[in-house]
Request: fold
Amino acid sequence: MLKREFIYDFGLSQDDPKSELAALSIQENDRVLCIASAGEVPLELLVNSPESVIIDAVDIADSQLFLSRLKLKAALLLDTVPAARFLGFMPAEESERVAWFKKIDPELTKAERNFWKEHPSILILGPVNLGKYETYMRKFSPFGRLLLGGKKRLEGLFETTSVEEQKNYFDDVLRAGLLKNLFKVMFHPKLYKQRGISEQGLIHWQDQQLGLKFYHQFRDFCTNTPVRKNWMLQFVLFNRVLFEESLPSYLQQDDKIQFREMARRTRFLEQSITTIIEESDSGYYNKFALSNVSDWLSAEDFTALLQLIVQKSGPNARGLIRYIHSAGVTNPQLPHLLGFDAEAGQKLLSKDRFPFYKLIPFSFRGNEGNK
Reply:
């Protein structure tokens, strides 16, 4: 049941870029460093920042970088709905994706072209559906819809007109309590570690009740933000985005000439985030979207990363840390030096469209360096 080809760990970034935008407060001439993952965060930061801002997105997996660049090329060369359908946010026929890919192909590098030729399955399902995580989760979607009361009841959630109405509908109409056992199965360590996520992402997983934790956060996922604007919720529940207006804003750039100029401000680099800070000039970067790298690094390595940020950040430094399992550090002074703000993190989380992470925004003076 759970076997299907996957190409990368994540076809979609599970970080809500609105939280990164709020936490980073990007200003003119800022230089932003972020994790590429599946591309949504750097691309959303790009289209929602001043024209003088530079954004570098890094990842140690070239497959994630190829995916991120493919999303950018699709957004540059196709209109909103065709781009969404090509990428797999919305359904499309294989023949349509073949035609759209022919428009994108001339803009790809040789390495990218060879990579996608090796993985023609993207033309069947769409690239966003071929991450390891998405491949795993979509197998459970029909059971989840059934347990919640069926597709029609779920569609009723999207007919509500306010967050308060969503909460009442969720509590009174949907049968969310039945999901508990499904979540226990989906996130059982033996199954989830093998099929759902790379083991490196679970090195801090000590709580064997992850399914229950996610189950209790599921109501927030469905009720914290307007459902018709939450493309991630729509995708998780129905394996597709329902409403064009909710698609990521990088797909909704009508002025392609302006967007192409905008795209020159971002780079996708195959590099670890620690190494790129080590090799950068002092003061070069001053904004950091760290995603949940702390879940993937040892406490010692995460400490070293944060110490580099303290030492080398430019002025008015700000950042956001996400985590599910751990954001522990071996240097107890670091949270103070970086200005960790747990209260602000809670406020951000209350509006986050994918509220399964804990959030830690930070801000500190930084240094002048060569900014």
About this structure: Residues 62-77 form the longest helix (16 residues).
